[in-house]
Amino acid sequence: MMAGPDQIRTVITGVGVVSPIGIGRDAFWSGLMSGTSGIDYLSGFSTNNLPSCVGAEVKDFDPVRYLRDRKFLKVMSRDVQLGVSSANLAMQDGKLNPGDVDPDRLGVVYGAGRMTTSPEELADAVAEIVDDVQDDEMMLTRWGEESSGRIAPLWLLRQLPNMPACHISIDHDARGPNNTITSRESSALLALSEAARVIERGAADAMIVGACGSNISPVDITKLSLYEGLSHRKDDPEKACRPFDFDRDGTVVGEGAASFVVERYEHAIARGAEIYAEVIGFGSGCDGAGYNNGAGGRGIGRSIEGALRRANITADQIGHINAHGKSTQRDDLVEARAYHKTFGDQIAKIPVVALKSYFGNFDAGSGAVELAGTLLSLHNGQLPATLNYEYPDPRCRLNVTHGQAVPLIGRTALSVNRTSVGQSAATLLRAL
After folding, report:
1. Which fold has domain 10-116+159-430?
2. What is the C-alpha separation between 414 and 278, in angstroms, rounded?
3. Model pLDDT for residues 288-302, shown as the tens digit of each residue
Protein backbone atom coordinates (compact mmCIF):
# COMPACT_ATOMS: atom_id res chain seq x y z
CA MET A 1 0.00 0.00 0.00
CA MET A 2 1.43 3.36 -1.00
CA ALA A 3 1.04 6.14 1.52
CA GLY A 4 -1.29 8.98 0.64
CA PRO A 5 -0.16 12.61 0.80
CA ASP A 6 -1.42 13.03 4.39
CA GLN A 7 -0.50 9.60 5.73
CA ILE A 8 2.38 9.47 8.19
CA ARG A 9 4.70 6.56 7.53
CA THR A 10 6.61 4.79 10.31
CA VAL A 11 9.98 3.13 9.83
CA ILE A 12 12.54 1.27 11.96
CA THR A 13 16.07 2.65 11.88
CA GLY A 14 17.90 1.00 14.78
CA VAL A 15 18.14 -2.55 16.15
CA GLY A 16 19.75 -3.58 19.44
CA VAL A 17 19.80 -7.19 20.67
CA VAL A 18 20.98 -8.93 23.82
CA SER A 19 20.34 -12.64 23.29
CA PRO A 20 21.63 -16.13 24.10
CA ILE A 21 23.06 -16.42 20.58
CA GLY A 22 24.77 -13.05 20.44
CA ILE A 23 24.94 -9.56 21.87
CA GLY A 24 24.56 -6.82 19.28
CA ARG A 25 22.96 -6.84 15.86
CA ASP A 26 25.80 -8.47 13.95
CA ALA A 27 26.55 -11.19 16.51
CA PHE A 28 22.86 -12.07 16.74
CA TRP A 29 22.49 -12.31 12.97
CA SER A 30 25.64 -14.39 12.71
CA GLY A 31 24.17 -16.82 15.25
CA LEU A 32 21.01 -17.18 13.19
CA MET A 33 22.88 -17.69 9.93
CA SER A 34 25.19 -20.31 11.41
CA GLY A 35 22.34 -22.20 13.07
CA THR A 36 23.89 -21.73 16.49
CA SER A 37 21.67 -22.80 19.39
CA GLY A 38 21.74 -20.77 22.59
CA ILE A 39 20.12 -23.58 24.60
CA ASP A 40 22.32 -25.59 26.97
CA TYR A 41 22.37 -27.08 30.45
CA LEU A 42 21.72 -24.32 32.99
CA SER A 43 24.94 -23.34 34.74
CA GLY A 44 24.08 -20.55 37.18
CA PHE A 45 22.55 -22.78 39.88
CA SER A 46 21.89 -26.41 40.76
CA THR A 47 19.08 -28.02 38.77
CA ASN A 48 19.06 -31.34 40.64
CA ASN A 49 15.59 -30.83 42.11
CA LEU A 50 14.08 -28.82 39.27
CA PRO A 51 11.64 -30.13 36.63
CA SER A 52 13.87 -28.85 33.80
CA CYS A 53 17.64 -28.55 33.59
CA VAL A 54 18.02 -26.73 30.25
CA GLY A 55 17.61 -23.12 29.20
CA ALA A 56 19.03 -20.32 27.08
CA GLU A 57 21.24 -17.99 29.10
CA VAL A 58 22.87 -14.79 27.89
CA LYS A 59 26.50 -15.59 28.56
CA ASP A 60 29.42 -13.16 28.73
CA PHE A 61 26.99 -10.31 29.48
CA ASP A 62 28.57 -7.51 31.50
CA PRO A 63 25.91 -4.82 31.96
CA VAL A 64 28.52 -2.24 32.94
CA ARG A 65 29.68 -2.22 29.31
CA TYR A 66 26.27 -1.10 28.10
CA LEU A 67 24.74 1.01 30.89
CA ARG A 68 25.18 4.74 31.39
CA ASP A 69 26.17 4.46 35.05
CA ARG A 70 27.00 1.30 36.99
CA LYS A 71 25.38 2.70 40.13
CA PHE A 72 21.96 1.96 38.61
CA LEU A 73 22.67 -1.78 38.72
CA LYS A 74 21.49 -1.95 42.33
CA VAL A 75 17.96 -0.99 41.26
CA MET A 76 17.87 -3.13 38.11
CA SER A 77 16.74 -6.73 37.93
CA ARG A 78 18.29 -8.96 35.30
CA ASP A 79 15.34 -8.21 32.99
CA VAL A 80 15.87 -4.46 33.27
CA GLN A 81 19.61 -4.74 32.68
CA LEU A 82 19.00 -6.68 29.47
CA GLY A 83 16.35 -4.24 28.24
CA VAL A 84 18.22 -1.02 28.94
CA SER A 85 21.39 -2.45 27.39
CA SER A 86 19.53 -3.42 24.21
CA ALA A 87 18.01 0.07 24.00
CA ASN A 88 21.44 1.66 24.19
CA LEU A 89 22.64 -0.67 21.43
CA ALA A 90 19.61 0.27 19.29
CA MET A 91 20.31 3.98 19.68
CA GLN A 92 23.93 3.42 18.69
CA ASP A 93 22.89 1.34 15.70
CA GLY A 94 20.34 3.94 14.63
CA LYS A 95 22.93 6.73 15.05
CA LEU A 96 20.31 8.80 16.82
CA ASN A 97 22.52 11.22 18.71
CA PRO A 98 21.57 13.93 21.22
CA GLY A 99 20.17 16.88 19.30
CA ASP A 100 18.98 14.79 16.35
CA VAL A 101 15.45 14.86 17.75
CA ASP A 102 13.68 17.26 20.09
CA PRO A 103 13.64 15.53 23.53
CA ASP A 104 9.97 16.43 23.89
CA ARG A 105 9.27 14.49 20.69
CA LEU A 106 11.26 11.38 21.61
CA GLY A 107 9.24 8.78 23.52
CA VAL A 108 9.44 5.24 24.87
CA VAL A 109 7.03 2.30 24.72
CA TYR A 110 8.44 -0.85 26.27
CA GLY A 111 7.22 -4.35 26.97
CA ALA A 112 7.95 -6.25 30.15
CA GLY A 113 6.57 -9.23 32.01
CA ARG A 114 6.79 -10.51 35.55
CA MET A 115 10.14 -9.85 37.19
CA THR A 116 10.71 -12.53 39.77
CA THR A 117 12.41 -11.77 43.05
CA SER A 118 14.68 -14.36 44.61
CA PRO A 119 13.85 -15.84 48.02
CA GLU A 120 17.24 -14.67 49.27
CA GLU A 121 16.19 -11.03 48.91
CA LEU A 122 13.46 -11.51 51.52
CA ALA A 123 15.14 -14.15 53.69
CA ASP A 124 16.35 -11.79 56.43
CA ALA A 125 12.93 -10.22 56.83
CA VAL A 126 11.16 -13.58 56.96
CA ALA A 127 13.64 -14.91 59.50
CA GLU A 128 12.57 -12.14 61.88
CA ILE A 129 8.99 -13.43 62.09
CA VAL A 130 9.94 -17.03 62.91
CA ASP A 131 9.62 -17.98 66.56
CA ASP A 132 12.44 -20.41 67.34
CA VAL A 133 10.90 -21.29 70.69
CA GLN A 134 7.56 -22.38 69.23
CA ASP A 135 8.72 -24.80 66.53
CA ASP A 136 9.30 -22.25 63.78
CA GLU A 137 5.80 -20.79 64.09
CA MET A 138 5.30 -17.66 62.00
CA MET A 139 4.67 -14.62 64.19
CA LEU A 140 2.98 -12.44 61.58
CA THR A 141 2.46 -9.52 63.94
CA ARG A 142 6.20 -8.96 63.88
CA TRP A 143 6.13 -8.17 60.16
CA GLY A 144 4.91 -4.60 60.48
CA GLU A 145 6.59 -4.04 63.81
CA GLU A 146 10.14 -4.89 62.83
CA SER A 147 10.64 -7.41 60.00
CA SER A 148 9.62 -5.28 57.01
CA GLY A 149 12.42 -2.90 57.91
CA ARG A 150 14.93 -5.60 56.97
CA ILE A 151 13.93 -5.33 53.29
CA ALA A 152 16.17 -3.04 51.23
CA PRO A 153 14.35 0.29 50.65
CA LEU A 154 14.91 0.09 46.87
CA TRP A 155 13.99 -3.59 46.58
CA LEU A 156 10.65 -2.97 44.84
CA LEU A 157 12.24 -0.84 42.11
CA ARG A 158 13.98 -3.95 40.81
CA GLN A 159 10.68 -5.72 40.21
CA LEU A 160 8.42 -3.09 38.64
CA PRO A 161 7.66 -3.74 34.94
CA ASN A 162 7.63 -0.02 34.11
CA MET A 163 11.26 0.41 35.15
CA PRO A 164 12.81 -0.44 31.73
CA ALA A 165 10.86 2.42 30.14
CA CYS A 166 11.85 4.71 33.01
CA HIS A 167 15.57 3.97 32.78
CA ILE A 168 15.58 4.20 28.98
CA SER A 169 13.83 7.56 28.98
CA ILE A 170 16.31 8.93 31.52
CA ASP A 171 19.31 7.56 29.63
CA HIS A 172 18.27 9.24 26.39
CA ASP A 173 16.44 12.29 27.75
CA ALA A 174 13.27 11.04 26.08
CA ARG A 175 10.59 13.40 27.42
CA GLY A 176 7.83 12.42 25.02
CA PRO A 177 5.05 9.84 25.42
CA ASN A 178 6.05 7.02 27.76
CA ASN A 179 4.23 3.73 28.25
CA THR A 180 4.72 0.13 29.36
CA ILE A 181 2.97 -2.90 27.82
CA THR A 182 2.57 -6.00 30.00
CA SER A 183 0.97 -8.63 27.78
CA ARG A 184 3.58 -11.36 28.08
CA GLU A 185 4.86 -12.65 24.72
CA SER A 186 2.72 -10.26 22.69
CA SER A 187 4.13 -7.19 24.47
CA ALA A 188 6.80 -6.28 21.92
CA LEU A 189 4.46 -6.22 18.92
CA LEU A 190 1.85 -4.31 20.90
CA ALA A 191 4.53 -1.81 21.94
CA LEU A 192 5.53 -1.34 18.30
CA SER A 193 1.92 -0.73 17.26
CA GLU A 194 1.44 1.79 20.08
CA ALA A 195 4.62 3.62 19.06
CA ALA A 196 3.44 3.75 15.43
CA ARG A 197 0.14 5.26 16.56
CA VAL A 198 1.96 7.86 18.67
CA ILE A 199 3.99 8.93 15.65
CA GLU A 200 0.97 8.86 13.33
CA ARG A 201 -1.01 11.20 15.55
CA GLY A 202 1.89 13.64 15.58
CA ALA A 203 2.84 13.28 19.25
CA ALA A 204 6.45 12.24 18.54
CA ASP A 205 9.04 12.09 15.77
CA ALA A 206 10.86 9.04 17.16
CA MET A 207 10.20 6.31 19.71
CA ILE A 208 12.36 3.74 21.49
CA VAL A 209 10.50 0.43 21.44
CA GLY A 210 11.25 -3.08 22.66
CA ALA A 211 10.77 -5.66 25.38
CA CYS A 212 12.82 -7.67 27.84
CA GLY A 213 12.50 -10.82 29.90
CA SER A 214 14.40 -13.34 31.98
CA ASN A 215 12.98 -16.51 33.50
CA ILE A 216 16.30 -18.18 34.26
CA SER A 217 15.74 -18.86 37.94
CA PRO A 218 14.64 -21.83 40.07
CA VAL A 219 11.48 -19.96 41.07
CA ASP A 220 10.48 -19.29 37.45
CA ILE A 221 11.29 -22.80 36.28
CA THR A 222 9.19 -24.28 39.07
CA LYS A 223 6.23 -22.01 38.33
CA LEU A 224 6.39 -22.39 34.56
CA SER A 225 6.56 -26.17 34.77
CA LEU A 226 3.10 -26.15 36.36
CA TYR A 227 1.25 -24.39 33.55
CA GLU A 228 3.52 -23.66 30.57
CA GLY A 229 4.72 -27.13 29.62
CA LEU A 230 8.53 -27.14 29.82
CA SER A 231 10.61 -29.62 27.86
CA HIS A 232 11.95 -32.52 29.92
CA ARG A 233 14.71 -33.42 27.48
CA LYS A 234 18.03 -33.95 29.23
CA ASP A 235 20.14 -35.86 26.71
CA ASP A 236 20.72 -33.08 24.18
CA PRO A 237 19.78 -29.52 25.28
CA GLU A 238 20.19 -28.03 21.81
CA LYS A 239 17.35 -30.23 20.55
CA ALA A 240 14.96 -29.45 23.42
CA CYS A 241 13.01 -26.67 21.68
CA ARG A 242 11.32 -28.10 18.56
CA PRO A 243 8.60 -25.81 17.18
CA PHE A 244 6.03 -27.60 14.96
CA ASP A 245 8.03 -30.83 15.16
CA PHE A 246 6.09 -34.01 15.93
CA ASP A 247 8.44 -34.87 18.83
CA ARG A 248 8.18 -31.55 20.63
CA ASP A 249 7.52 -31.92 24.35
CA GLY A 250 7.53 -28.39 25.68
CA THR A 251 9.15 -25.00 25.58
CA VAL A 252 12.46 -23.93 27.13
CA VAL A 253 13.18 -21.04 29.51
CA GLY A 254 15.47 -18.26 28.35
CA GLU A 255 16.35 -14.61 28.66
CA GLY A 256 17.06 -11.65 26.44
CA ALA A 257 15.86 -8.33 25.08
CA ALA A 258 15.66 -6.36 21.87
CA SER A 259 15.00 -2.70 21.22
CA PHE A 260 14.29 -0.60 18.16
CA VAL A 261 14.41 3.00 17.02
CA VAL A 262 11.09 3.80 15.36
CA GLU A 263 10.77 7.06 13.42
CA ARG A 264 8.54 9.11 11.22
CA TYR A 265 9.70 8.38 7.68
CA GLU A 266 10.44 12.00 6.78
CA HIS A 267 12.40 12.46 10.00
CA ALA A 268 14.57 9.45 9.23
CA ILE A 269 15.22 10.56 5.65
CA ALA A 270 16.10 14.08 6.75
CA ARG A 271 18.87 12.84 9.04
CA GLY A 272 20.11 10.26 6.54
CA ALA A 273 19.23 7.23 8.64
CA GLU A 274 19.50 3.67 7.36
CA ILE A 275 16.01 2.14 7.25
CA TYR A 276 15.49 -1.54 8.08
CA ALA A 277 11.80 -1.70 7.24
CA GLU A 278 8.52 0.16 7.23
CA VAL A 279 5.71 -0.77 9.61
CA ILE A 280 2.78 -1.17 7.23
CA GLY A 281 0.24 -3.02 9.36
CA PHE A 282 -0.55 -4.29 12.81
CA GLY A 283 -3.43 -5.89 14.63
CA SER A 284 -4.33 -7.53 17.93
CA GLY A 285 -7.00 -9.80 19.33
CA CYS A 286 -7.85 -12.41 21.94
CA ASP A 287 -9.37 -15.87 21.69
CA GLY A 288 -12.26 -14.97 23.96
CA ALA A 289 -14.60 -17.45 25.64
CA GLY A 290 -15.27 -20.99 24.56
CA TYR A 291 -13.19 -24.03 23.68
CA ASN A 292 -13.54 -23.62 19.92
CA ASN A 293 -12.19 -20.06 19.96
CA GLY A 294 -9.16 -21.05 22.04
CA ALA A 295 -8.41 -24.28 20.18
CA GLY A 296 -8.66 -22.48 16.85
CA GLY A 297 -6.48 -19.52 17.79
CA ARG A 298 -9.20 -16.97 17.11
CA GLY A 299 -7.04 -14.16 18.52
CA ILE A 300 -4.22 -14.89 16.07
CA GLY A 301 -6.64 -14.83 13.17
CA ARG A 302 -8.15 -11.51 14.21
CA SER A 303 -4.68 -10.02 14.67
CA ILE A 304 -3.54 -11.06 11.20
CA GLU A 305 -6.76 -9.91 9.58
CA GLY A 306 -6.37 -6.50 11.23
CA ALA A 307 -2.77 -6.18 10.05
CA LEU A 308 -3.68 -7.15 6.48
CA ARG A 309 -6.53 -4.64 6.37
CA ARG A 310 -4.36 -1.83 7.64
CA ALA A 311 -1.60 -2.65 5.17
CA ASN A 312 -4.12 -3.21 2.36
CA ILE A 313 -2.31 -6.31 1.12
CA THR A 314 -3.31 -9.93 0.52
CA ALA A 315 -1.82 -13.19 1.75
CA ASP A 316 0.06 -13.82 -1.49
CA GLN A 317 2.13 -10.70 -0.84
CA ILE A 318 3.58 -12.03 2.43
CA GLY A 319 7.16 -13.17 1.97
CA HIS A 320 7.38 -15.14 5.22
CA ILE A 321 5.90 -15.57 8.68
CA ASN A 322 7.99 -15.31 11.83
CA ALA A 323 5.83 -17.58 13.98
CA HIS A 324 5.32 -17.69 17.72
CA GLY A 325 6.43 -21.36 17.62
CA LYS A 326 6.43 -22.02 21.35
CA SER A 327 7.20 -25.75 21.00
CA THR A 328 4.40 -27.09 23.18
CA GLN A 329 2.00 -29.61 21.68
CA ARG A 330 -1.07 -27.43 22.23
CA ASP A 331 0.30 -23.97 21.43
CA ASP A 332 1.88 -24.95 18.11
CA LEU A 333 -1.25 -26.79 17.02
CA VAL A 334 -3.47 -23.81 17.91
CA GLU A 335 -1.18 -21.48 15.99
CA ALA A 336 -1.12 -23.73 12.92
CA ARG A 337 -4.92 -23.99 12.93
CA ALA A 338 -5.16 -20.20 13.00
CA TYR A 339 -2.89 -19.89 9.95
CA HIS A 340 -4.89 -22.46 7.99
CA LYS A 341 -8.17 -20.78 8.82
CA THR A 342 -6.85 -17.30 7.98
CA PHE A 343 -4.87 -18.07 4.82
CA GLY A 344 -6.53 -21.21 3.49
CA ASP A 345 -4.52 -23.06 0.85
CA GLN A 346 -2.17 -20.07 0.55
CA ILE A 347 -0.43 -21.04 3.82
CA ALA A 348 1.32 -23.93 2.06
CA LYS A 349 3.26 -21.40 -0.04
CA ILE A 350 4.35 -19.06 2.77
CA PRO A 351 7.68 -19.92 4.46
CA VAL A 352 7.42 -20.09 8.25
CA VAL A 353 10.36 -19.66 10.65
CA ALA A 354 10.27 -20.29 14.41
CA LEU A 355 13.18 -18.60 16.17
CA LYS A 356 12.44 -19.88 19.67
CA SER A 357 14.25 -23.00 18.49
CA TYR A 358 17.43 -20.92 18.96
CA PHE A 359 16.78 -19.22 22.31
CA GLY A 360 13.63 -20.54 23.96
CA ASN A 361 10.82 -18.51 25.45
CA PHE A 362 11.29 -15.61 27.89
CA ASP A 363 8.02 -13.80 28.17
CA ALA A 364 7.95 -10.30 26.65
CA GLY A 365 11.59 -10.41 25.60
CA SER A 366 11.26 -13.39 23.28
CA GLY A 367 8.77 -11.57 21.06
CA ALA A 368 11.16 -8.63 20.78
CA VAL A 369 14.15 -10.80 19.85
CA GLU A 370 12.01 -12.56 17.24
CA LEU A 371 11.03 -9.18 15.83
CA ALA A 372 14.72 -8.35 15.53
CA GLY A 373 15.14 -11.55 13.55
CA THR A 374 12.35 -10.47 11.19
CA LEU A 375 13.93 -7.07 10.61
CA LEU A 376 17.39 -8.48 9.98
CA SER A 377 15.97 -11.09 7.61
CA LEU A 378 14.36 -8.33 5.55
CA HIS A 379 17.52 -6.24 5.74
CA ASN A 380 19.84 -9.07 4.65
CA GLY A 381 17.52 -10.90 2.25
CA GLN A 382 17.96 -14.23 4.03
CA LEU A 383 15.58 -16.35 6.10
CA PRO A 384 17.15 -18.42 8.91
CA ALA A 385 16.41 -22.11 9.25
CA THR A 386 14.22 -23.36 12.09
CA LEU A 387 16.30 -25.65 14.31
CA ASN A 388 15.23 -29.18 15.26
CA TYR A 389 12.48 -29.47 12.66
CA GLU A 390 13.15 -33.13 11.88
CA TYR A 391 9.74 -34.84 11.97
CA PRO A 392 7.03 -32.48 10.65
CA ASP A 393 3.82 -32.68 12.63
CA PRO A 394 1.14 -33.73 10.09
CA ARG A 395 -1.47 -31.86 12.15
CA CYS A 396 0.32 -28.53 11.58
CA ARG A 397 1.12 -28.80 7.85
CA LEU A 398 3.22 -25.64 7.64
CA ASN A 399 6.03 -24.74 5.24
CA VAL A 400 8.65 -24.54 8.01
CA THR A 401 12.15 -23.50 6.90
CA HIS A 402 14.78 -25.98 8.06
CA GLY A 403 18.17 -27.36 7.19
CA GLN A 404 19.77 -24.12 6.09
CA ALA A 405 19.02 -20.44 5.54
CA VAL A 406 17.22 -19.60 2.31
CA PRO A 407 16.89 -16.42 0.22
CA LEU A 408 13.80 -14.36 0.89
CA ILE A 409 11.08 -14.62 -1.72
CA GLY A 410 9.46 -11.30 -0.88
CA ARG A 411 10.01 -7.96 0.84
CA THR A 412 7.10 -8.23 3.27
CA ALA A 413 7.10 -10.22 6.52
CA LEU A 414 4.49 -11.06 9.14
CA SER A 415 5.57 -11.41 12.78
CA VAL A 416 3.16 -13.10 15.19
CA ASN A 417 3.06 -13.63 18.96
CA ARG A 418 0.49 -15.12 21.33
CA THR A 419 0.16 -15.62 25.09
CA SER A 420 -0.98 -18.85 26.69
CA VAL A 421 -4.40 -17.29 27.39
CA GLY A 422 -4.95 -16.20 23.81
CA GLN A 423 -3.83 -12.56 23.67
CA SER A 424 -2.31 -12.16 20.23
CA ALA A 425 -0.55 -9.55 18.11
CA ALA A 426 0.61 -9.41 14.51
CA THR A 427 2.78 -6.91 12.64
CA LEU A 428 3.49 -6.53 8.93
CA LEU A 429 6.86 -5.12 7.92
CA ARG A 430 8.16 -4.23 4.47
CA ALA A 431 11.74 -3.67 3.37
CA LEU A 432 12.20 -0.42 1.45
Report:
1. Peroxisomal Thiolase; Chain A, domain 1 (3.40.47)
2. 12
3. 998 888 889 999 999
